[in-house]
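Q: Got a minute? One more chain.
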Amino acid sequence: MWKLVNGKLQQTIDTTRIEFRTTSSKSLINELANLAEMHNTHINYLLESGFINLLSSNDGITFDKKKRPSDREHYKTTYDQELFNEIKELAKLNKLYINDVIEYSAQFIDVESSKKKGHRYRIEV
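A: Always. Here it is, folded:
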C-alpha cells in the first residue's frame, strides 16, 4: 500500500492484515488459484469474500468432520485481522478447526465482491 505524505508517495505495510499458516485441501487451493487467475484477484481475497458471506448468513455451519479432505497441505497467506478474528471465534463456537471453517467458507465466495490484485498497491491519503 502507498500513502501520500506531504505530497510524496511512501510505501507502507498494511498493518490491518495478519499472516496465517494453515492446512487446506490441495484441490481446493488449486480451484481457487484458477478462479483467482480468471478474475484478476488473489486466493486470500476470494476467501475473505467467503468469510464475509459466511458471517452474514444466518444458516450456521453444517460441517461433517468425517468428510474432511485427505489432501491437505500447508498454505500460508494474509487476511484482514478483524475479519479473521471473527472467523476464529466462529470456529471456536462451532467446535471446529480454523482450517475447517476456511474450507467451508469457500462455498460462499462471491467473485464480484472480491478485491482485485491491484488492491495492495492502492494509494491512501
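A: The two ends are 11 Å apart (CA to CA).
Q: Perfect, thanks.
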